[in-house]
Amino acid sequence: MQPRRYLAVHFVVIMIIFDRSVEGSLEKCVESHKYNSKRQFTLTFLIGSKINSDFNIAHLSFTTVNELFEKEDKEWIETVIEHGYLLRRFLPGGIGNVGILWVCNENIGSERQRILLRLFDKIVKEARNDFITTDNIYCVVHLEAPNYKPQGYTLDAAVKNTDPSPVKVVFSNLEWIGVKSSISINFSLPVRDDVHNFRDQFKYIMSKWNDKEKRHRSSNFVEIQLFLSSDDDFEDFDHKDLIGYSIVDLKANLSIQAAVPSKATMEYAINAVKEHIIRNLSFRAELHYETMEVTDDSDAEDGISIHQFPRLVTAQFPSQSAILLSDCLMQEDTKKIAQDDFKQFFSLEFTEDEISDSYERPLSCKDFYGILEENDKPKRFDRPSSTTSSGVSISSVVPITNIFLDFGLPVVVFYGRDI
């Protein structure tokens, strides 16, 4: 007699888990929707982490589109995407927008599903600007009149014409833990001729760094020290056709505090640290770029000017002290700007004393000179004088960029070099 054989089938039960502290915000969202009788829907971002297929929700981020729009048109979608993109600037590694909460007066029909998929597709593409591998699966919590009972779904933004998959929605006491680390980066990379401005240069170097770093994954470290050689890349240049060249030197010593769910693995924590590094540097570089006024300074004797990145200020989530929000302020900005940003994006009100500006120290002129080679010492040093102008000097050839951090404010040095 043949022995019986059994087939083991493992089922993965996906859940959307709200922290108990979110219950009040959820009720507030429903009441706000019911109060405005003309509003057909209310949209809210779900802030948290995805771990082991579950979505852990730490906070609700209300969007301004609820007051600005009455229908889901193209302009509405673009506004939602912009809000979600800016939202990531404030979040630590390990925390992100994992989905949306949708309060409406009717069932989610096929047209609304299509709109949601368009939203998710754009959100996924924007998230990849962090150069972090992003999951295509997002969650939706739908609260429908008249009882507004939470109904959970997941959607795959990578699959067209997909139907939402129902999942369970529960409330529990969740906990996030802080992941404190540091990283040292020191490498040079040539920039191709078609990369001319600071923003494109920075995105280029960060993507190259992340691509090379991913080839050397390890699960037994938290502190990372990375040295990359760019000698091979120089072989692609035809010096006979160049009047100048551009090299990006990235030097950084960063102190990091990411946040992960208490059940996170070491690999999860390491990826959160990587996400924090790339997101933090990229957004600060982007903000610096947005406030720069480019001027032609090709006749300058030394062709060098030094620029500080925006400084970080931080505040703790009231319900999860391990989650550290951060904002970037220009030189003359006050904590009032951070207060307004935290209120706008997170509906959180902080006093000035609750916002810390001691996370990084200001760099001195001595610090700036210390990062340059002796032959590259500038004959003058220009400190930015306003919140909207950095007075960038750019030489006649594509500039070389140096970025340096010493648990202090990042600085950017532009200078050109002839062949």
Automatic annotation (TrEMBL):
<dbReference type="GO" id="GO:0008104">
    <property type="term" value="P:intracellular protein localization"/>
</dbReference>
<keyword id="KW-0472">Membrane</keyword>
<dbReference type="GO" id="GO:0016020">
    <property type="term" value="C:membrane"/>
</dbReference>
<comment type="similarity">
    <text>Belongs to the ODR-4 family.</text>
</comment>
<protein>
    <submittedName>
        <fullName>Protein odr-4 homolog</fullName>
    </submittedName>
</protein>
<keyword id="KW-1133">Transmembrane helix</keyword>
<dbReference type="Pfam" id="PF14778">
    <property type="entry name" value="ODR4-like"/>
</dbReference>
<dbReference type="GO" id="GO:0012505">
    <property type="term" value="C:endomembrane system"/>
</dbReference>
<feature type="signal peptide">
    <location>
        <begin position="1"/>
        <end position="24"/>
    </location>
</feature>
<keyword id="KW-0732">Signal</keyword>
<dbReference type="InterPro" id="IPR029454">
    <property type="entry name" value="ODR-4-like"/>
</dbReference>
<keyword id="KW-0812">Transmembrane</keyword>
